[in-house]
Design a protein that fits this description.
The chain has three domains: about 1-165 and about 215-325, FAD/NAD(P)-binding domain (3-Layer(bba) Sandwich), CATH 3.50.50.60; about 170-210, no CATH class; about 330-395, no CATH class. Helix content is about 30%, strand content about 15%. It is globular and about 65 Å long. It has helices spanning about 25-35, 65-70, 75-85, 95-115, 175-180, 185-205, 215-230, 280-285, 305-315, 365-380, 395, and strands at about 15-20, 40-45, 60, 120, 140-145, 145-150, 210, 235, 235-245, 250-255, 260-270, 330, 340, 350-355, 390. Helix 3 packs across helix 4 (about 95-115) and helix 5 (about 175-180) crosses helix 6. It binds flavin-adenine dinucleotide. Flavin-adenine dinucleotide binds next to strand 9.
């Protein structure tokens, strides 16, 4: 639920050690800096903290991370390295993915020390390419456990709302969703999950607790850590341009709050954590598809590529601009919201055809590969067009569809 945000903390000229721009995962950078004794400031363009992170699944894929290893996973950094070499290869500099691998454990340890979050392994959520060297079908994905966002107190009003919300208050994790979706097929696994989360959601309200899951829990936990650390967060404050000093080193930024400019000097650095450019149509048309429509985003509205733009102004390079987090969804009725397809494509009794009625994809592909394939077809001058999912009665009567249609429920007329 979207709340009325609190008025922003007034911005002023000042000097800090580290300036973090963007209050999504940037809050993690701020927590790391604060723990090392650096004075830190977070600035956020919108009225809300959380960014697309708050709207996301909140799942993290980190090989051999402590949550996996404490729960019986046989993963290792060597296996993770084999997988990254096979899956990422030279599409990203090796030094960068090696750093991701080497520092994953420290990142999770940091979140455990500096936030009230706890995590679980989503066991059975397969790697997206389990067939590659080092891949695993039991998976490495972990996620936050349900988190009580009421611990934020008054600051709760400053937290961005979740993207996909359950129709009733219940904190559904990915691990729950798997069994809830199969509730009509395997009731003894699905029904207890529904009862547990429903009781937690509703019982929590009675106790004045408000449980969240997924990315909303992650963002709330990060925010709770930031508040506890006393790191200031200036909302409604956008980076305008970066300041540079000797040798082109970034020394701070000019920010705008309610039309007023302030200058923040950053002695040790500036972290650009302003998310992607899903709400800048010029950039999407330039780097991705001409056919892209403004409604095609599940991300936070503040993400207009600002960090990329100010970075480029001071000479930063860019890469992988044609890539995004892709996700197939059911087209929204006029004025309505899209419905994402989570597990639907992986279940028996359905197939997908392109606009000309041809089957063109392994429906159960991970959502990234699905999106990339659609893009490739577009680029090759053979656009997929409107895609149609064809399913039988057995399928419809067995599984949840588009997030909220329970088995046997009729399809909405607008579809
Ligand atoms: C529905 C959905 C589900 C997803 N699920 C997952 C998942 O389970 N696991 C996973 O790894 N990834 C997932 N992703 C992708 C993931 O959410 C993003 O990659 C990640 O949240 C990006 O984090 P960020 O900190 O870069 O950006 P954000 O979290 O979007 O934060 C950027 C912030 O910067 C602010 N900002 C923008 N411009 C300025 C400016 N000029 N000045 C100041 N502030 C500015 C924005 O308002 C925003 O608050 C998902 C994405 C979506 C949309």
């Amino acid at each position: 639920m979207t709340r009325s945000p609190l008025p922003p903390v007034p911005a002023r000229d000042m000097a800090v050690d580290l300036l973090v721009i963007g209050a999504g995962t940037g809050m993690g950078a701020a927590l790391a800096a604060h723990e090392r004794g650096l004075s830190t400031l977070i600035v956020e363009k919108t009225e809300f903290v959380g960014g697309s992170t708050a709207r996301s699944g909140g799942a993290f894929w980190i090989p051999a991370n402590p949550v996996l290893m404490e729960n019986g996973s046989t993963d290792s950094l060597e296996q993770g390295e084999r997988y990254l070499r096979a899956a990422v290869g030279d599409s990203s500099p090796e030094a960068r993915w090696q750093a991701f691998l080497a520092n994953g454990k420290a990142a999770i340890d940091l979140l455990r020390r500096t936030t009230p979050l706890t995590f679980q392994w989503t066991k059975g959520y397969s790697d997206y390419h389990p067939e590659l060297a080092g891949g695993t079908a039991v998976g490495r994905t972990c996620e936050p456990r349900p988190f009580d966002v009421s611990v934020l107190g008054e600051e709760r009003n400053r937290l961005r709302s979740a993207g996909v919300e359950a129709p009733v208050p219940m904190p559904v994790t990915s691990a729950d969703y798997k069994w809830m979706n199969l509730m009509f097929r395997i009731p003894h696994r699905g029904v207890p999950r529904v009862v547990k989360r429903f009781a937690q959601g509703l019982g929590g309200l009675a106790l004045r607790r408000e449980y969240s899951s997924a990315g909303h829990a992650l963002a709330a936990g990060l925010f709770a850590g930031v508040l506890e650390a006393g790191v200031p967060v200036w909302t409604c404050t956008a980076v305008d341009r970066l300041l540079t000093g000797e040798g082109g080193r970034v020394t701070g930024a000019v920010l705008t709050q309610n039309g007023r400019e302030v200058t923040v000097t950053a002695r040790r650095g500036v972290v650009l954590a302003t998310g992607g450019f899903d709400h800048d149509m010029d950039m999407r048309h330039k780097f991705q598809l001409e056919a892209t429509q403004p409604g095609w985003s599940l991300g936070s509205e503040g993400n207009t590529g600002d960090g990329i733009k100010v970075g480029e102004e001071v000479g930063a390079a860019t890469a992988l601009m044609d890539q995004a987090w892709w996700f197939p969804e059911v087209a929204p009725p006029p004025g309505g919201a899209p419905s994402v397809l989570l597990a639907e494509r992986s279940l028996p009794g359905q197939f997908i055809v392109d606009g000309s009625g041809r089957r063109f994809v392994n429906e159960a592909l991970d959502y990234m590969s699905f999106g990339q394939l659609v893009q490739e077809r577009e680029r090759a001058g053979d656009p997929v067009g409107d895609m149609w999912m064809v399913f039988d009665r057995g399928y419809r009567n067995s599984y949840v569809f588009a997030g909220s249609l329970l088995p046997r429920m009729p399809l909405p007329k607008a579809w």
